[in-house]
Design brief:
Number of strands: 5
CATH architecture: 3-Layer(aba) Sandwich
Helix content: 40-55%
């Protein structure tokens, strides 16, 4: 019997798949991982990543949807867009990433 796995991917263009065009859109590393997991599991994949997203965007706009997906596995890959802005605030970015990770951890993903 195949197990069921819920995977939520949060982040920016790297997770979204920009640069990895396939017919109908973008693929990216998160889709490749979900497809690889599907060889042994039934996978519910929720890619919430948005090109240009910052740690604040993830915290404010992707986190609640990820928690609602009730994932077993979560990826949180974001930060490059933060560092490229003149408004970059490293302590705030760290706090938002840690809070996002804590919320996801409390929800229970592996």
């Amino acid at each position: 019997m195949r197990s069921y796995v819920r995977f939520a991917a949060l982040g920016d263009s790297a997770t979204h798949g920009i640069g990895d065009r396939v017919p109908g859109g973008w693929r990216g590393w998160a889709r490749l991982l979900a497809d690889a997991m599907a060889s042994g599991h039934d996978v519910s994949f929720c890619n919430l990543a948005v090109p240009g997203a910052t740690a604040t965007d993830v915290h404010q706009h992707q986190l609640a949807d990820a928690v609602a997906h009730q994932p077993d596995i979560v990826s949180l890959v974001v930060g490059l867009n933060d560092t490229m802005r003149s408004t970059w605030d490293p302590p705030r970015m760290r706090a938002e990433l840690l809070e996002s990770a804590e919320v996801l951890h409390r929800q229970g993903p592996c």
